[in-house]
Amino acid sequence: MSAPTAPALAAGHHEPSKFHFYIQIAMILAVITGIEVVLVYLPIVKWLVVTTLILLSTVKFMFVIFFFMHLRWDKVFCTILFFIGLVLASFTMFSLMKLFASDAAKPLTAAALDFARTTLG
Amino acid sequence: MSSPAANGHLDHHHDHTTSTGIPNKKLLWWAFLASDCMFFGALISSHLVYRLNPPPGNAVPTQVFNIELTSFSTFILLMSSLLMALAVNAIQKGNVKSTRTMLLGTIFFGCIFLGGQVFEFTHFVADKHMTLSNSIFGSTFYTLTGTHGTHVAIGVLLLGMMYVRTFKPTHGGSLGRNFLHLLAFAAAAGVAFLFFVPGLLEVIEGESLRAMLSHDAKPLLLGAIACAALVWFARTSNPAVEFGEKNAIDVEAIGLYWHFVDIVWIIIFTAVYLLEYL
Amino acid sequence: MAKVITQSGFTGKEIAQPATTFSLFTRPTAKTGLVSWLTTVDHKKIGMLYGGFAILFFLIGGIEALMIRTQLMVPNNHFVSAQLYSELFTMHGTTMIFLAVMPLNAAFFNLLIPIQVGARDVAFPRLNSFSLWVWVVGAILLNVGWISHFVPSWNFGGAPDIGWFGYAPLTSKAFTPDLSTDFWVLGIQVLGVSSIVASLNFIVTIINLRAPGLTMMRLPVFTWMALVTSFLLVLALPAIAIALIMVMFDRNFGTNFFEVSGGGQPILWQHLFWVFGHPEVYILILPPMGYVSEILPTFARKPLFGYPIVVFSGVAIGFIGFGVWSHHMFTTGLGTVATAAFALATMAIAVPTGVKVFNWIGTLWGGRIVTRVPMMFALGFIWMFMMGGLSGIMHSAAPADAQQQDSYFVIAHFHYVLIGGATFALLAAIHFWFPKFFGRMVPEFWGKVSFWVIFAGFNATFFPMHFLGLNGMPRRTWTYDSNMGWNEGNLFATCGAYLLGLGMFTYFAVLVWSYFKGEKCGNDPWDARTLEWSIPSPPPEHNFAAIPTVHARDAWWYEKTHKEEIAQEKAAHIKAEESHGGIHMPDQSWYPLFAAAGLLVGAYNFAQLHYPVTMFGQQVLASHLPLAITGLGLMVAACYLWALEGPGGYHLHIDAEGKVTESRGDHH
């Protein structure tokens, strides 16, 4: 914390402005959003629509984190740090969905509950 | 801790006082966002889990949702993200005026998003009769989108605090003036998303402008005064401010939070809204 | 460049002219007295505060346990009512986990981490102070219910009584309408905030504030375990935060998250709770594994065996720990696939744990064992933790678990890992680092006496519970009939519990005595290996006269064996630092305390949201909401002023004789 200070980088670090780049990214994101909305109304088989929606959302997600949030140009440890949380959250979400989608997790209907109580004891 | 060099730009990607070169604040925020991934992950999971076996009597999302409005809101939030990135870009070049404009733009779009949520929720409750407690869908939907909306509102507050901070004079720091400036901002933003934007949306949906104005006359007046105050504070501030390139890390930190709130919405829009239409 | 200058407020005078700060109060500067403790940002003082509170609650939790054991001493006993019994076992668990072991670990994180990484404080000192005071708020919220037993007009419904894991739908308004559950929900929520904030701080400190030459693989094992624990905390706590929000909403706003008639499923609570709850037990045990990994090499007189694999195993345990949560739910009807998957994952986690045990044994092998008190507790840890691990692996077999679930066998298992494991290691650590932070030694004889009494009492209490459990005694049972075959086991266990209590009392009484009368010691009484032993006992405010350069693992050991090289480096560093204005130290602040106070007001009133506010028997407000909002407002205001105040700071200068002077107001 009290290491001797070196002169801040001056030479060769004047980056070209990212202004126009950000605008382009935003335009791409807007177009993708538009595609997503149209997609649900198209008469395409469901699993393909779902997969495409997830894919498009992932693309938007990656654009925002790598470009708007600057991960592309930062030290890679920031990316690792965030992805630890992201991967863990995805894994937990996936596991919970799988657990609740299984037959064992189906909530009993009133009739089935009665049957379980009376017949199975 | 290091003094900015008198000549040349600061290196905004490398902090030589830390072991990794990553500024402490940036590392803190990324670690926090990793944690927030788990937070929203658990919340979104809970909503999706309850969509697997909907009980009888549950609300039917496709009959409740207004997908045009939500798509518009998604677009708005994306644009606010753009403006946030441009604000960070501006302060990294030391351009305080541009930073202020971009911050205000981000806030403006954020308020439109929030106003859209307020409008949406009001109509879901009043017209579609879907409340927090009368169905499981209502419970999970409002809690999830409400938590996200709260995050957006906190973001708007943080952005407002940053905006006001850009006016801190180099000499004679006046805490009172800062507080009043922030108060004016909070009033303006609050009126914007609680009354102005929902009111406008009502007008678009068919209500007469006159009815809207008379209905919300008091808050709108307060909002107008608050906006006038903001303009006054900006115009009468000392041009020599203690804010510049060295504060870029703080704007960047708020930017990370704001962008994260945007990407959570990207997921919510797909998982909660779009998937219901299949 | 000109543009930068004109737009940055640069006035053409000195570059780093101090900016005027927005301050409402002047920065506190007291170094002694109450104010210095309330406004401290010094990690050592914060560590002591955590430790002091933790020991207090450890003793309270112990009394709760003795009351439980007294009730169970004989069959059909009526020492306490069934209602009070429920409060006792709930609060015993909650207190020991959240108010004793976790803050004791937090105390060691605070005391040791900055020094072990060669820094002067954590990355965000005021945030550190905030975590502490928020923790105190959480502790208050959890325990405020006890007041109802003494002052009936404070109608909180007693202390929380829903079990430390608060299963739904017991926590719904229909089954526990009293405020006790609401305070439990908010208490745990607030503690979660404290832990998350503290962990973020330590993650940044460990990764970013390391001294020159201190690569990650040269860090002390304790620091590594603290890093993994911090990651576990920030990633696991959000799950329970969401679950608690759901319970709070169900109770206060009529949502249906766990309300079956509205479409909810109580099992979701169990999942979300254990998604947090399982990593939580690794949060409890990894730091103790870290203490043991420091103590064993010191008293075996050789370096830790297999450092990289010990570190890697700790990371593996943390990682796999996120994938085993449903082993707490084997009897809930998950389905065959899910049950098998979680059983396998649970068995897998035994592997890195076993690897660590082998490495500790490898450290002892061929060493010159010095049986001082910390070593005895550490050796006890290895053996007792392993026994707890063996009953744990028995649980991992789902069919066997079907018999063991909710029986005393589980209680035996987790007390072996938590007392035999975590607590033994903590008692070892307190003994080991006591000389460092208080400058006095604890008498060996009495330390050893307390060890043997604790060891005997602990085993006498919990070993019989294995048999009680397998013979059918259920958990959380207020009493039992005399013909169940449980009488002798329970009596023996209660006698053991009193012996354990005596041992604990002896241990802490000896510590108190040592604080006042213990033999004074120098900086390195144990001839140890890590950086904290290189600085005076007790450490000065600034920790190091010169930030060390680290050349190898066990940095202090290297320094002791390369004295000349180190002396030259130190002199150069001191010169360099002084030429940059001196040793930079963070300023104290009122705002973390004020923000926590606002949170207390907000949370206390939010818990009672739907109740009217009465004063002296008269209703003053229809609901607590305005007061809750006021509390929130106070917290926000304090945080805002905190931000405006800025980090501040002052400089210390050490002259040739070692005298320290302060200077303020020059460029930072």
Fraction in beta strands of chain A: under 5%
The poorly predicted ranges of chain A are: 1-13
Instruction: State the end-to-end distance of chain A.
Output: 69 Å
Backbone CA Rg of chain B: 21 Å
Tally of discrete structural domains of chain B: 1
Structural class of chain A: mainly alpha
Largest sheet of chain B: none
CATH class of chain B: Mainly Alpha
Q: Please identify which CATH superfamily of chain B we are dealing with.
A: Cytochrome c oxidase, subunit III, four-helix bundle
Largest interface: A-B, 63 and 67 residues
Task: Provide a count of the helices of chain A.
Answer: 4
C-alpha Rg of chain A (nearest Å) = 25 Å
Count of distinct strands of chain B? 0
Number of strands of chain A: 0
Oligomer: heterotrimer
| pLDDT averaged residue by residue of chain B | 92
Structural account:
The complex is a heterotrimer of chains A (121), B (278) and C (668). By secondary structure, chain A is mainly alpha-helical. Chain A has two domains: 23-73; 75-108. Chain A contains four helices and no strands. By secondary structure, chain B is mostly helical. Chain B has one domain: Four Helix Bundle (Hemerythrin (Met), subunit A). Residues 1-8 of chain B have low confidence and may be disordered. Chain B has helices at residues 24-52, 61-64, 67-92, 96-126, 136-165, 175-204, 209-215, 217-235, 248-273. In chain B, α3 (67-92) packs antiparallel against α9 and α5 (136-165) packs across α6. Chain C has helices at residues 2-7, 34-38, 43-71, 82-116, 125-143, 147-150, 179-208, 221-253, 267-300, 307-320, 336-364, 373-396, 398-404, 408-438, 444-470, 487-517, 555-561, 563-579, 591-607, 625-645, and strands at residues 583-585, 613-615, 618-621, 650-654, 660-663. In chain C, α4 runs antiparallel to α5 and α12 packs parallel to α15 (444-470). The two termini of chain C are 23 Å apart. Mean pLDDT of chain C is 94; it is low at 1-19.
